[in-house]
Design a protein that fits this description.
Blueprint: H1 12-19, H2 27-34, E1 40-42, E2 47-51, E3 58-62, E4 68-71, H3 75-79, E5 89-92, E6 98-103, E7 110-117, E8 124-132, E9 138-144, H4 152-168, E10 188-196, E11 200-207, E12 213-219, E13 244-249, E14 257-262
Antiparallel strand pairs: 1-2, 2-3, 3-4, 5-6, 6-7, 7-8, 9-10, 10-11, 11-12, 13-14
């Protein structure tokens, strides 16, 4: 005997679940693709430095508390805040006592700034500021001659070792640190290495017993020795500007340094 086979109707719940599979995009999904993410730095003392979303300011917040403060801006930025953008690069020294930032300009030269920390974590004083030509702004920064770092894996292993020694009643050992990274300047502190949009390396440093900031500049495309305080020259008007870079420092290296440049398509 044959039976009529009738189509089973789709339940409202299944139909609703099928409709939810259609993804609808909003403006917030494409905003990270249109805007460059704001720079953010986390210091050794758990201070988070970030760029203000609309104003040329650096805001800071202590992670383990609700303490917030603003880093003092240079006089050029305070006098004409609409002429400058929020900082595009922020870098804090591993020693936790120096801070660098770059403020791009609107149809004016940008400003590079260097701060030194006072006795409190929220006390930062502007040490130096200098103009930076358009198209030559720094895109990466690294600090030389900084204290040796402690590896996170070594911290975990050392914690387990100390716990074992405490349970067994033995004397705990000392903390192991990583080897020093990169070249070690003998007569300057701090020493800041900057990579710029026009393919140059700028070395900013304070010599011992000399209060003024010194500069050394070298072209990445055409490496050559440059006297202190003199420019390495322009790389040409048709140069393809670099918008991002990475600096690698080798361990126990006298002159080991790798620089990677990234260009827009």
């Amino acid at each position: 005997m044959q039976h009529d086979v009738k189509a089973m109707p789709i339940s409202p719940q299944k139909g609703k679940a099928r409709e939810n599979k259609n993804w609808q995009a909003g403006w917030w999904d494409f905003q990270p693709l249109a805007e460059r993410p704001r720079p953010l730095e986390w210091s050794q003392s758990s201070i988070i430095f970030s760029a203000h979303p609309a104003q040329p300011l650096i805001t800071a917040r202590h992670f383990s508390s609700s303490k917030q403060f603003v880093i003092p801006s240079p006089t050029q930025v305070v006098a004409a805040p609409t002429s400058y953008e929020p900082p595009s690069l922020i870098s804090v020294a591993p020693s936790d006592d120096w801070l660098f930032a770059y403020f791009p300009g609107h149809d004016v030269e940008g400003i590079g700034c260097l701060w030194v920390r006072g006795p409190q974590i929220d006390n930062w004083m502007l040490k130096e500021s200098w103009p930076i030509a358009q198209g030559a702004g720094p895109v990466a920064a690294s600090w030389l001659g900084q204290p040796r770092e402690v590896s996170i894996f070594q911290i975990i292993a050392q914690t387990i070792l100390i716990l074992y020694q405490w349970l067994s009643g033995t004397t705990p050992g000392s903390t192991t640190r990583l080897p020093p990274r990169g070249p070690h300047p003998a007569v300057s502190s701090p020493t800041l290495l900057l990579v710029t949009q026009d393919h140059h390396i700028n070395l900013c440093y304070y010599r011992q017993y000399i209060p003024s900031l010194k500069f050394l500049t070298c072209s990445i495309a055409h490496p050559a020795a440059t006297p202190e305080g003199q420019s390495a020259g322009d790389s040409g008007p048709t140069i393809k500007r670099c918008f991002r870079a990475a600096i690698g420092l080798g361990y126990n290296g006298v002159d080991l340094c790798w620089i990677y440049l990234f260009f827009p398509k």
